[in-house]
Amino acid sequence: MKQEIGSTPQHGLRCQPMNIAFTDSWLNSMQGLRLVIPTGCTVAGTAGGDGPEISRSILISAPFVAIIPVGAQLAAVADNNPAGWVIALKPGVLGQVSQLAFDVVPRWSRFWNPFLREAAGTLTTLHHADLIDAACADAFADVVSVHVALRYGHCAGAAVPDMPLTRQMLTRIEAFVHEHIAETILVGQLAVLVHMSASNFARAFKTATGTPPHLYVTLERVKFARTMLCQQTPPLVDVGARAGFRTQQHFTEVFHRYTGVTPRAYRLAHRTVGS
Fold first, then answer.
1. What is the residue range of 178's domain?
2. pLDDT at 275 (0 to 100)
3. Is residue 208 in some structural domain?
4. pLDDT reported for residue 51
5. How far is CA 265 from CA 194, 241, 255, 260, in A?
6. Has this prediction a pTM greater than 0.85?
7. Chain mean pLDDT for the chain
8. Pairing state between β 73-76 and 33-38
9. CATH number of the domain where residue 55 is located
10. What is the pLDDT of residue 221?
11. Is 3 helix (H, G, I), strand (E, B) or coil?
12. Can you tell me the distance from the alpha carbon of 128 to that of 4, in angstroms, rounded to the nearest whole number?
């Protein structure tokens, strides 16, 4: 007999559809962190405190995700049927390594992560087809926990030999770019984040990543646009604007340069594959 998600206190509750997670008292009582992944048009709001005098609140909507403390309050904004997933992250999934890694995973962070968006899409497809049970849900939660530990926490403060930028610095830069993807982003702004001059930062960033910072920002804009074209149906001009391109023509030219197709063709191809 198939074991449904959330059927026992031991299994399946770490990976919950958003409408269930909002009212699941057991998930809310867990210690650690939660990953919030809204899908469709759902906007999730979360609020809580980091101390007796420090309060935090953020709004999350696709294609962004967020990491919040488990104790934070979470609710949909003007949505009676919220869509998405809330995943309780398990620090011990990689043993002592991930225990230490999770200590530096940024709380109250909102960012864009294509892997996590794909995971949410797969979860939704399995859920709608009634093909996901408690064991499968726990497996997804474990994989996501490993990804978060390695991507945002593992050895984040360590510098790679001959590279003056630590992984923590690179994560800080990535988070800033994703948070401000719709805006003009200057190399000097990124350099300030790691307390370097623009010229020294540009050299250090290329050494660490193999890509100049201005090209990195452009490629992130293209990736962001691809995610929107795959997951949502806003007008193309809105996709370009939200990805930070100055005009629709500029969006089309840059997107075609790095993908080989226009945004319209990319969307139509994705719809054809999805159907």
1. 167-274
2. 46
3. yes
4. 56
5. 39, 18, 11, 10
6. no
7. 82
8. unpaired
9. 2.60.120
10. 94
11. coil
12. 13
